[in-house]
User: Which sequence fits this backbone?
C-alpha cells in the first residue's frame, strides 16, 4: 500500500503543467535523436545534461529519462523507412520493417513498431516499479562466466538471421568478431592489428560501421540499378494496422517486453542483445518462420518490444544499487550527481519524492510517446515517397555527418564509407550484414568476460557454475536446431 501511495504522490506531481511540457519536450527530442543516424540514446542524454543545470533535480531527471525512452523508439523510424537504423538496437527492426516498406506497407511497420515500443516501455516500467529490488540482487550475483555465456547465446542467433544461408551468416559474424579485435586489448592493454597506426588504437566505432553497412550499402546497391526517378515505396493510400493485427501480436509483444526487461538489467547487455535474442526466439516459436526477414509483423513487434522494455530493465540496477545497466544510465548517474543525488538504495529513503515522480513520469512518457508517434507517423511516412534522386543525397550527407559526430574523427567518416563498400559487396554475394553488427556488439562482451572468468576461477568455471552451463547448453541448442532443420529440409527437397 505504501508503494501505491508513493506512486500516487509522484503522479500528482507529474500531471502538473510544467512536468507534462517537460516530458513532451523530452519525448520529441528523443525521437529526433533516435531517428538521426549517428546519435545514440546515450549521446542524446549526454548532450542535454548541461541544459539541466538550472532545472530542479526532478524535472532534470524527467527530461533525460523521456529522451532515453523516446530515442530507443526513434531509431525504428529510419530503420523502417530508409533502412538506416538510427540506433544499434533498431538494426533488428530493419530486418522486417524495411522489407515491408519495399512492399509499399511502411504504415504497417511503423504502426506495429510504435505500439510494441509503447507496451514494451510500460511493461518494463511496471517491472521496475514492483520487482526492481529482487531482480537487481539476482543480476549482481552474475559471474563473468554467466556474462560470457549470455554473449555466446546472443551470437547463436546468427543461425536464425542467416536463414538457409547459415554458413554465410556464420562467416559474417566471424568478420564482426575479428573487426572487434582491432585496437587496444581491454584487459592487457596490448595493441592488436593496428600496424602502428594511431587512429586504429580505439578500433572501429559501432555507429559508423552500422551506418555504412546498412544505409550506404543500400544506396550503393540501388545505384547499380540506375533507377533514380522511382520512389522508395508506393505513394498510394497507406494501410495501417487494425486492432485485429495488434491483437494477433499480443503474446509476441508481451514476451519480448519481459525478455527485454530481464536482459536490460544486466550491466553491459543492453537493448541490442535484447532485440536480437527476442527476434530469434520469436522466429523459432512462430507458426510462419519463413516470413521473417521478408516483412513479418511479428519480427518488428519482437524487436521493438524488447528494445523499449530494456530501458526499464537498465534503470533497475541504477536506481536500486547505483550501478549503470547501459551507456545511457551511466550518463544518468552523472546527471544525478550533478544535482547532489547519489544513486542507490539510500536514494529511496532520502529523496522518495524524486524517485516516485520519476517512476510515474516513465509511464506518462510512454503514453505521450504513443500519441506523438501516432500523429508523427503520418509525417514520417512521407519519407518513403520522396524520389530516390533526392532521398539518396540526403541520406548520404546525414550518414557522413552522423559518422563524424560520434568521435569528431575523419577516420570514422572513412570507416563509414569503407563499411558501406564492404556491405555492398557482401549484399552482391548474398551475405547478410546484420551478423557483422552482432559480432561487433557481442565480441567485446564475450572476450572481456571470458578472460575475467578464466583469471578468477580457471577454465572449468563455465561448466561448474549452473547458470553458465545452462545458458551454454541453451546456446548450443539454439545454434544446432536450425541447422538440423535446414539439413532435413534439404534432404526432403533432394527426394
Assistant:
Amino acid at each position: 500500500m505504501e508503494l501505491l501511495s508513493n506512486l500516487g504522490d509522484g503522479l500528482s506531481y507529474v500531471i502538473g503543467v510544467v512536468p507534462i511540457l517537460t516530458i513532451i519536450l523530452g519525448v520529441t527530442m528523443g525521437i529526433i535523436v533516435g531517428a538521426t543516424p549517428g546519435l545514440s540514446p546515450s549521446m542524446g542524454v549526454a548532450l542535454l545534461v548541461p541544459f539541466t543545470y538550472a532545472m530542479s533535480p526532478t524535472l532534470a531527471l524527467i527530461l533525460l529519462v523521456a529522451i532515453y525512452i523516446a530515442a530507443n523508439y526513434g531509431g525504428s523510424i529510419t530503420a523502417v523507412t530508409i533502412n538506416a537504423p538510427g540506433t544499434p538496437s533498431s538494426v533488428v527492426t530493419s530486418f522486417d520493417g524495411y522489407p515491408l516498406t519495399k512492399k509499399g506497407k511502411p504504415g504497417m511497420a511503423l504502426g506495429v513498431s510504435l505500439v510494441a515500443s509503447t507496451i514494451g516501455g510500460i511493461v518494463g516500467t511496471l517491472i521496475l516499479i514492483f520487482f526492481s529490488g529482487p531482480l537487481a540482487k539476482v543480476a549482481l550475483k552474475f559471474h563473468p562466466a554467466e556474462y560470457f555465456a549470455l554473449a555466446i547465446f546472443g551470437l547463436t542467433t546468427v543461425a536464425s538471421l542467416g536463414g538457409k544461408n547459415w554458413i554465410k551468416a556464420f562467416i559474417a559474424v566471424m568478420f564482426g568478431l575479428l573487426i572487434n579485435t582491432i585496437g587496444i586489448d581491454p584487459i592487457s592493454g596490448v595493441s592488436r592489428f593496428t600496424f602502428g597506426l594511431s587512429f586504429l588504437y580505439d578500433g572501429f566505432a559501432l555507429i559508423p560501421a552500422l551506418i555504412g553497412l546498412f544505409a550506404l550499402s543500400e544506396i550503393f546497391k540501388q545505384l547499380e540499378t540506375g533507377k533514380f526517378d522511382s520512389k522508395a515505396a508506393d505513394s498510394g493510400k497507406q494501410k495501417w494496422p487494425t486492432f485485429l493485427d495488434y491483437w494477433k501480436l499480443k503474446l509476441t509483444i508481451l514476451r519480448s517486453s519481459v525478455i527485454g526487461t530481464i536482459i536490460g538489467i544486466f550491466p553491459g547487455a543492453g537493448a541490442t542483445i535484447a532485440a536480437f535474442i527476442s527476434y530469434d526466439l520469436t522466429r523459432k516459436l512462430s507458426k510462419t518462420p519463413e516470413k521473417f526477414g521478408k516483412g513479418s509483423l511479428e519480427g518488428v513487434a519482437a524487436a521493438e518490444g524488447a528494445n523499449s522494455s530494456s530501458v526499464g530493465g537498465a534503470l533497475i540496477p541504477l536506481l536500486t544499487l547505483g550501478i549503470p545497466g547501459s551507456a545511457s544510465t551511466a550518463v544518468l548517474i552523472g546527471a544525478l550527481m550533478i544535482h547532489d543525488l547519489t544513486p542507490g538504495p539510500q536514494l529511496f529513503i532520502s529523496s522518495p519524492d524524486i524517485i516516485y515522480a520519476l517512476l510515474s513520469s516513465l509511464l506518462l512518457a510512454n503514453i505521450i510517446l504513443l500519441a506523438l508517434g501516432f500523429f508523427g507517423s503520418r509525417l514520417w511516412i512521407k519519407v518513403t515517397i520522396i524520389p530516390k534522386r533526392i532521398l539518396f543525397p540526403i541520406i548520404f550527407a546525414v550518414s557522413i555527418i552522423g559518422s563524424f559526430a560520434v568521435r569528431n574523427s575523419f577516420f570514422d567518416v572513412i570507416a563509414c564509407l569503407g563499411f558501406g563498400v564492404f556491405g555492398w559487396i557482401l549484399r552482391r554475394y548474398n551475405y547478410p550484414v546484420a551478423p557483422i553488427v552482432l559480432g561487433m556488439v557481442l565480441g567485446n562482451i564475450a572476450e572481456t568476460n571470458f578472460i575475467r572468468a578464466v583469471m578468477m576461477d580457471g577454465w572449468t568455471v563455465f561448466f561448474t557454475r549452473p547458470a553458465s552451463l545452462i545458458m551454454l547448453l541453451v546456446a548450443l541448442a539454439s545454434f544446432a536446431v536450425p541447422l538440423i532443420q535446414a539439413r532435413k529440409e534439404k534432404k526432403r527437397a533432394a527426394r
